[in-house]
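Pasting as-is:
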Amino acid sequence: MMKRTSGNILYLLLFLFLLTGAEAMAQQRFPKPEFESGYVQPDPTTPEPRSMELEYVDVLVLLLVLSLASWLAVRRRSRRGLLWLSIFSLVYFGFYRNGCICSIGAIQNVALSIFDSGYAISLTALLFFILPLFFALFFGRTFCAAACPLGVIQDLLVIHPVSIPSWIRKTLGFIPVIYLGLAVLMAATGSDFIICRYDPFIGIFRMDGPFLMIFLGVTFLLLGMFFARPYCRVFCPYGVLLGWMSRFSKWHLTITPSECIQCKLCKDSCPFDAIEMPAEQTYRTPEVARKNLHRFILYVVLIPVLVVFGGWVGAKSHIFLSRVHPDVYLAELMISRPELKNDVDNVDIQAFLESGETFEQLVERATMIRNRFKKGSMILGGFIGLVLGITLMNQVVFRNREVYEPHRGNCFSCGRCMDYCPVEKR
């Protein structure tokens, strides 16, 4: 039987590819205008910035929570300890810190710092991005278990989870990969921080926000009573990176402290369908092995085709995607509707006119941004094609498995399975 080693190496290469792939530089928008019409700039809804000392306290708390969660999951094997620790993280990182700074949103800060030499990422944002990945590499996704407020608030409301067919889970699991690529592209081009903009729980943590986003967050929580952790499993872009790193984890949560008796209680207790069953004997027959080998070779040959096709589709979609950038949108708006230049109620156009920049300069900058979107969109499409090819390839890669084990990439290290295991440590 084939080993999963090759698949794991490819996932690691994917992680490096994502961080170094696109070539895009962000552009600063024109300065804030000074209106003479009595317009008053509205107050921002984002939290007030904290002092550097308090930000370092946040990093220290994160480090302590990750360390304690890893110890509770791997060594202490305590579901109760993980539960109480997750409640603390929800209160501190969620409601007290208003969900910011967030390891999930830090993806965008890292992407922007890589592609914009004028943007300097803060040390705290960088550490919030790196520390959970570092712990996932050694101990699995303990960040998801007890440190992430977005995951905890969903996990606490799991009441009657239902099992989802494997093909549906794998199809839905492809969505966060696309979301991750789009988030990196938008941040790298200075267009938007879409992860933060469309965070469904930030309004709940801050007890304020647009009605639509609060409604979306409540909908996720209600859905999560039956489909456990819907945001984590279907949308979270940081979970993609954590899953890739966790596949290489040296130590990981185990279901049973000694010999597995195959009672299946762990599988029934996992609300996330993250428990892998023992490999069926049919996978080990020479006929099936030969068939899977042929499919494996086919998928390997197909990967370059998917990459090229994805890059072509991405390049074709750059015009549509580039409209997210405010400069491109404004240039297209003024070209298609020149009469809006006299519309005093259009804040964007009036702000541009007050900036003193010429229309030709705006068009030139928008053209440059669109060209960068073309490169970035092409790489995004190729990246998605590469992930799709590796996903297909892994469908025919099986590892000899005699007992029930958590899937290292999908397991949230919540500890439910080991809590249900009736085997005592010898």
